[in-house]
Structures are given as structure tokens and as C-alpha cells.
Amino acid sequence: MADVPVRLTKALARKRVSLGFVAAAATLVLAQPTWEAWRAGLLIASGGECLRLWAAGHLEKNREVTRSGPYRLLRHPLYAGSALIAIGVAVASRSVAAAVVAVLYVGVTVGAAIRSEEAQLRHAFGSTYDDYRASRVEPMVRRFSLARALRNREYRALGGLILGFALLALKILAPL
What's the domain count of the chain? Predict the structure, then answer.
């Protein structure tokens, strides 16, 4: 997808939340959850949310190239966490079609968001970001901050996770 036009990449990155609602609705319709699949999916998705929370508690958006917490290990821990959440939802859904929707959604929108964000970081921070990408910088020391995670609005991802798994549970309890 390296040849995808920049405008399309930016549009997909900007619309990823709206497209996420569409993907979630499709996943819910296609889902055939059982309690066993639901529990396994919730465990995986919870790991993804924990990674996102850890990252959000270290991230200072638009102020620096964050190099603490999970950013010492991964360039995009928020997106990695989102991918784990999508895998958890796919497992909980117990549906190949739902898994395809999740993989397509994450692959297209998160890929676009990463490309768009990296261009913005390179523009804003220049060689500092290039050095971070090449692992030529020392990690920074910063403690996790719940206030920072809240400032980064991580509660929205947690709320979406809870709502999604509640809807899957309702589908188990009252199948259509």
C-alpha cells in the first residue's frame, strides 16, 4: 500500500473512528459468539487495552517523540493495542467473516494512520524522529500517569471495548 495516494491515506486516518463503528456493527451482525469464545476474546482484547492504557499514560502528543514506557519497545503501541483488541473481538465473534472485517479494518485504517502520523512526526521533529525510528536514541525516564492517559482520552477506547463485549454477551443471551 506504499503507492496509496497521500490524500486517501489522510482521509482513511481521519475517518478511522467512524469506519470503526461501521466495522463494529458488521462484526456484531456476523458474530456467532459462545461464552468460551467470548472469554478468550475478552482476555486477548483486555491485553490490547492494557497496552493502550500503558502507552496513553506515557504519551505527550504533539510535544515530543515519546520514548518511555512501551514506546521504548514499539513505535506504535497504541495501534498495536488496537490490533490486539481487534483480534480479541474476532476470536469472541467466532466468525471467519467477522475476523475478515476486523483484519481489513485494522489493516487499512491503522496502516493509514501510521503512515499519516509518521509523516507528521517527521515534519514536526525531524531528525529526532528519524533517530527514534532507527533506535539511535536513549529511552527517556517517565513514570506512567493515569492523568496523562485520561488527558489522551483512553477512556474512549476502554468504553468501546466494554460496550462491544457487552453487545456480544447480549447476542449470546438473546440470539437473533
Answer: 1
C-alpha cell of residue 84: 490486539
Measure the CA–CA gap between 82 and 77, rounded to whole angstroms.
8
Instruction: Please give the grid coordinates belonging to residue 46.
Output: 483486555
Q: Are 104 and 74 in contact (CB under 8 A)?
A: no
Q: What is the DSSP string of 42-60?
A: HHHHHHHHHHHHHHHTT--
pLDDT per residue of the chain (176 residues) written in tens, 0 to 9: 455 577 888 888 888 888 888 999 999 999 999 999 999 999 999 999 999 999 999 999 989 999 999 999 999 999 999 999 999 999 999 999 999 999 999 999 998 999 889 999 999 999 999 999 998 888 899 999 999 999 999 999 999 999 999 999 999 999 76
pTM to 2 decimal places: 0.90
Residue 161 lies in a domain: yes
Separation CA 41–CA 89 (nearest Å): 6
Any domain includes 1: no
CA distance linking residue 166 with residue 176, whole number of Å? 15
Query: ∠ at Cα 20 (105, 115), nearest 5°?
Result: 55
Angstrom distances, CA of residue 107 to CA of 8, 33, 80, 139: 14, 23, 11, 28
* Contacts of 170 by beta carbon, 8 Å cutoff, 6+ apart: none
